[in-house]
């Protein structure tokens, strides 16, 4: 659903047109406002244009750091899934339709004649 999104950052109001999921856009705006507010408290300087720019840069760096950590974690998770899938597929290929071993196991079979 398209619509307008209102957000206040550092005492200034902004309005944007959203395309797509308005609820997700609202959550993103609130998340950004929270990061900017936290950065503003961390810097706690005078209300000048230079300080506002520093607050925004600090918030952007925090967001970038969070993004890169999440991306790294996601890539590790995908690698882990890929490895597990390969091992599972190999195990399945080494078993016959009834679950019998088709020679992929190093365990010798015992049997009598």
The coarse overall form would be elongated
When the domains are counted, the total is: 1
Approximate helicity band? 55-70%
Determine the structural class based on helices, strands and strand pairing: alpha+beta
Fraction of residues in β-strands: 5-15%
Low-confidence stretches: none
Spatial sequence of strands, sheet with the most strands: 1-2
Q: What letter string, H or E per element, gives the SSE order?
A: EEHH
Number of strands: 2
Q: What distance separates the N and C termini?
A: 73 Å
Output mean pLDDT. 86
Outline the biggest β-sheet: 2 strands, antiparallel
Q: How many H/I helical runs?
A: 2
Compute the CA-based radius of gyration: 27 Å
Core attributes:
113 residues, single chain, alpha+beta, 2 helices
Written description of the protein model:
Strands 1-2 form a two-stranded antiparallel sheet. The radius of gyration is 27 Å and the shape is elongated. The mean pLDDT is 86. It has 113 residues and is of the alpha+beta class. The protein contains two helices and two strands, in the order ββαα. A hairpin with a 2-residue loop joins strand 1 (3-9) and strand 2. The chain has one domain (3-93).
Q: Brief description of this entry?
A:
This protein has 113 residues and is α+β, with helices and mostly antiparallel strands. Helices cover 59% and strands 12% of the residues. It has one domain.
């Amino acid at each position: 659903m398209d619509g307008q999104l209102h957000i206040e950052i550092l005492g200034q109001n902004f309005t944007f047109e959203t395309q797509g999921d308005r609820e997700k856009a609202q959550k993103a705006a609130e998340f950004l406002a929270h990061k900017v507010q936290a950065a503003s408290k961390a810097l706690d300087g005078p209300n000048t244009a230079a300080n506002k720019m520093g607050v925004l840069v600090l918030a952007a760096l925090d967001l970038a750091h969070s993004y890169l950590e999440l991306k790294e974690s996601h890539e590790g998770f995908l690698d882990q899934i890929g490895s597990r899938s390969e091992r599972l597929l190999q195990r399945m290929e080494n078993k016959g339709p009834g679950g019998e071993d088709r020679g992929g196991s190093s365990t010798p079979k015992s049997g009598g004649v």
